[in-house]
Design a protein that fits this description.
Blueprint (H helix, E strand, L loop, with lengths): L2 E11 L5 E11 L3 E5 L6 H8 L7 E6 L2 E2 L4 H6 L1 E4 L11 H11 L6 H10 L15 H13 L5 E5 L7 H16 L3 E5 L3 H7 L2 E6 L2 E7 H8 L2 E7 L15 E3 L5 E6 L8 H10 L4 E8 L2 H13 L9 H7 L1
Parallel strand pairs: 3-8, 3-9, 6-7, 7-8
Antiparallel strand pairs: 1-2, 1-4, 4-5, 9-10, 11-13, 11-14, 12-13
Pfam families: ABC_tran (PF00005)
GO molecular function, one term: ATP hydrolysis activity
Protein name: ABC transporter domain-containing protein
């Protein structure tokens, strides 16, 4: 595949001595939606800020569409659109004025038709002549997105774009992202709403304590690391798991009316047949079976908790993380 962003041995240490990024290696493929997940303080915004030319790295190299962000910073920056977490609009400008200014700052020729298209897609066209200071918080967030798209970037960074916004804007954002991806724009999304990553992303990256601990295709990640659970709903309450079933990964529900069996869905011999056979032998009657697979949120929490354990050696590769799970 054709990489559009390449990050090599990237490190960032602030003047206080805090090391925000540690030897980051990352490749983003052209035209994909890449979701970067991580807890607060993990380094997500620092990484994005360096790629976008807002923060200087301590060490390492970044190229965007073949342009080095230091040597060819004008060309690199021209390909990037950024929707930051914080509201950074000039509150005294109108929406239309800030859109035209933003496009001009990137050296793009006037194209009112493009600006109109962006504003209409974000439900801002009717408010184009209003000052930004008069808008609601959700509308101000929409203006940030519109500004990021004003110069027709090939790469769009969305740093927590739907944090604190209403359901309508979140839905509009998802629809807009799908359209942009279909037009060939590469999208890098950071989010605390893991369902967004599960819904939108082609690949998932997880960053924790300044290190990339895993990068994988979303579907492959969930197949590889996801577990399944079988809930056996019982006719009669149990006080404890029967001794004959103690060798299986079973847990009894709090009310005693269900046995929860956790297993690897990829294994041919998953133990379900043995479980059901022993239940019959023990005269334990059950009335229903229900299976469920772990979500991306479960996987994310497990990965971050694993990387935080002092005994865990995190090398920044998917293979190292897999070996600890």
């Amino acid at each position: 595949m054709d990489p559009i962003i390449t990050v090599s041995n990237l490190n960032k240490t602030y003047a206080s001595g805090f090391q925000a990024l540690k030897s980051i290696d990352l490749t983003i493929q052209r035209g994909e939606i890449f979701a970067l997940l991580g807890p607060n303080g993990a380094g997500k915004t620092t990484l994005i800020s360096i790629i976008c030319g807002i923060v200087n790295a301590t060490q390492g190299q970044v190229t965007v569409d073949g342009y080095d962000i230091i040597r060819d910073y004008r060309a690199a920056r021209k390909t990037i659109g950024l929707v930051p977490q914080e509201l950074t609009n000039n509150m005294f400008d109108t929406i239309w004025a800030t859109m035209k200014l933003s496009r001009g700052l990137f050296g793009k020729p006037q194209d009112d038709a493009h600006l109109e298209k962006v504003l209409r897609e974000l439900s801002l066209w009717d408010k184009r002549n209003e000052k930004i200071m008069t808008l609601s918080g959700g509308m101000k967030r929409r203006v940030l997105i519109a500004k990021a798209l004003s110069h027709e970037p090939d790469v769009l960074f969305l740093d927590e774009p739907t944090a604190g916004v209403d359901v309508e804007l979140r839905r509009d954002m998802w629809e807009m992202v799908r359209k942009l991806r279909a037009s060939g724009v590469t999208i890098i999304l950071t989010t605390h709403y893991i369902e967004e990553a599960e819904e939108m992303a082609d690949r998932i990256g997880v960053i924790s304590r300044g290190e990339i601990i895993l990068v994988d295709d979303k579907a492959a990640l969930m197949r590889k690391l996801g577990t399944k659970q079988l809930s056996v709903h019982l006719q009669h309450q149990l006080e404890a798991v029967p001794p004959s079933l103690a060798y299986l990964p079973l847990a009894l529900s709090d009310d005693g009316f269900a046995l929860i069996y956790t297993y690897d869905a990829l294994k041919e011999q998953n133990g379900i047949a043995d479980l059901l056979r022993i239940l019959v032998q023990e005269n334990i009657e059950f009335k229903d079976l229900h299976s469920s697979q772990s979500s991306l949120e479960d996987i994310f929490v497990d990965l971050v908790n694993t990387s935080a354990r002092p005994s865990t050696a995190v090398t920044g590769t998917a293979a190292a993380v897999e070996s600890t799970l």
